[in-house]
Amino acid sequence: MRSRAAGVLVACLAGLLSIQLVGAPPARAAGPVTAGASTSAAGTTAGTSVVVPKPAGVVDGDILIAQITADGAPSVSAAPAGWSTVVSPLAVGNSARVFAYYRVIPTASAEPASYTWRLSSSVRWNAVMTDFHGVDTTTPFDTVARTRVNTSNSNTVAVPGVTTTTAGAMLVGGVGPNSASVAVTPPTSWTESIESRGGQTAELAYQARPTVGATGTATWRLGSSTTAAGWLRALRPAAGGTPPGPTAPTASFTRSPASGTAPLTVSFTDTSTGSPTSWAWNFGDSGTATTQNPSHTYSTAGTYQVTLTATNAGGSNTSAAQTVTVNPADPGPTAPVASFTRSPASGTVPLTVAFTDTSTGSPTSWAWNFGD
Known about the structure:
Layout: H1 2-23, E1 34-53, E2 63-71, E3 76-78, E4 84-92, E5 96-104, E6 114-133, E7 146-159, E8 163-164, E9 169-177, E10 184-185, E11 191-197, E12 201-209, E13 213-214, E14 218-235, E15 253-256, E16 259-261, E17 264-270, E18 278-282, E19 288-289, E20 295-298, E21 302-312, E22 315-327, E23 340-343, E24 354-357
């Protein structure tokens, strides 16, 4: 009996362990924050329910970011369960409201097919949503939020930058123009994940930040001048998710001409790969330069080894395979050797004599003295 009971206990424990393992969420692989799929919805007729479909491909530990642009001046009377504000609601006067929310996905299989926000008044609206992978689910944001509200018409929305503290962060932001049709262009070097128009205009965009530091102002451009509001904030990568950053460039260059007589001016062209951001040239004669494509004049004959050090955030790489050969300057013509003939060599007066120059060395002028 004791043996049988022990066997039952072991079997029960094994079954319990099996159940716990099956029920555990899959581990997320460490890596940088990346953007997934996006969805949108448009309320082209006035209503109080904002229903946005869940993006495809959502997995455990993802972060959903949603933006709603609503006409007029409503508030959100009820947000879906588990959603929190990214930024306080932005009021574009009494013309429009911009709302931004986020949700950490605990168990993707338990998520609904769509999410519903309730507005305090019946208005037209547009909403967008983007899925992000690799975000720190405990502390999703690396920075505070920054906002810009234009209550006067403008064709730009310049949102102040933030300073990230974690390498591999992802800037995410959006704008909400007070228009159902105006097109939006994201800031330079940003990627627009989705833009939706019809009831109002809602847009989301993002930019990867492999290194920490100030991001600078992000300026959205609008297809026409109108009032609008915009925001941005940085998502923090999950532990171990910091990307390796850029690799050091491979330095290379060409020179023209490769040889000639002094003084010789040579033009150097950078052909490095790997996106260098700075250049350090050594021309072999104590001359240096830091421009990308310099020129240099050699005044003394010799063979010079030219090196280029190309650098970016990943480090530097030096190429020293190019030489420049400078030949001595042309010494110029040598003095001619004077000689001549005369005919006749003698005779009676009056005597006319013809003189013929036979000098060598290419003389260019002649001075005769006839002895009388």
